[in-house]
Amino acid sequence: MADYRKLTILHSNDMHGDFLAETIDDSLVGGVSMLSGYLNRVRNKDPEALYVIAGDMFRGSIIDAEYQGVSTIEIMNYLAPDVVTLGNHEVDYGMAHLLFLEKCCKFPIVNANLYIKTTGTRIFNSHKVLRAAGMNILFIGIITEEIMAAAKNDNLMGTFVDINEAAAEVGKICDNYKSVDIDLTVLLTHIGFEEDKKLAKLLMPEWGVDIIIGGHSHTRPDEPAVENNVIIVQAGTGTDQLGRFDIVVDADTNSVAEYNWQLVPINAETCPRDEDLEDIIRHYKDETDRKYNKIVTHFPRALTHPKRNRETELGNLFADIFTESLGVDLMLIGSGSIRKPSLGPVVKLGDIKVIFPFEDEIMGFTWTGQQLKRAFAFVMRDHMFSDETEFYQVPEALKLTYDYNTKTFTDFTVNGNPVADDDTFRMALQIFHYSNMDDFFGVTQEETRANGEPKVLASSDYSILEEYLMLHTHLQRSVEGRLKVLNGPNNYPDDI
Description:
The chain has 496 residues and is of the alpha/beta class. Helix 6 (163-175) crosses helix 7 (193-202) and helix 9 (313-326) packs across helix 16.
């Protein structure tokens, strides 16, 4: 007679400090108080149920930014996940600070592919075996390649280059447990839903990977994807919903016999509130409100940033602000640096801190016209249109028209003048994007330095933005066609 075991796995990803409930259509939605209420309800009914998080607990709220993740860890400790993997934003406050935060955690963090370059030693445990419902469940953590980009600012830290190496590492870990009766194997990843599908195709059946619970792309699938008999899910972003697996495991064959997966809405109708957790959050909120409720400026209307892979109103404003403040020809703003879809019309100090939470150095350097055109040809390759790579917001001086069909520029001007290959331009980038120039632009630092030695133009991009907004009011921008695309795929850019 077959040995079937029932298991519930609840999962979150990309919570980004989304601690507070919002009122939507006169109903409270999201927030960790009601999330905790739902977790308590499930755990009271089924003490064997597991709760896991697939990266990016940090960044996105003023509470997280002000306390540099310490507040987030206290709240996560209260939620008591059974296992967590890292997202790219877990290193935003620096690797040393992340290691400090790990010491504050009352839950295990797994990551198979961050290591110290000089010794090859892993920084975190690669996996965790949990015992639940009479089964051994193996969890392995895999990070996005963006962590590699962040690691380039740290000479001692490295990670895998691509998912092929990540798949091989999964195989090594799984092979080492052949002598242990592992009933279920789950990858906790932070590489994006499409990359999860690619990873699943690379996994050997004998490794026994059953499920991938992912993050990073903020995907809310209607149903799980299945690739190579691996079930792949994600739970959107924030705390407005929670993923739930109800699984029947065949303990004889160590495989999923059947399952039901759903996104559970976290709202006042479905979840009780956890008043003890609300007291913790209220303490942090009261402190940040006193500091960050100061009004900085007013816009005539809210400016928007609805999607990162196209020109936006906020992107245009920020690129103009940095270009003007630094006195360069062109400052290119990483579109992902703008963390919220709108700002204004009333702009408080806390709003700026949340929408632009980074405090990076800005590097100045010189590019030739040929390098500038080559860089944007690289930016606007096919990956950009599916939002799988970094995109850049540009200042008013730059205008280009890109024909997707021919993969060429029909127009490319700076200050109204066609860009010649031997022109030179004073450029600026945030240090993260400068450090990863070859990955994001297809132009190397070595050839850039041949034009002159780069230098630090500013120690904090956030400080420049805050100061400019404090000194100016009634700022406006529109999407004016700085970056035009002809014959774009999938209704780009009107697919919002």
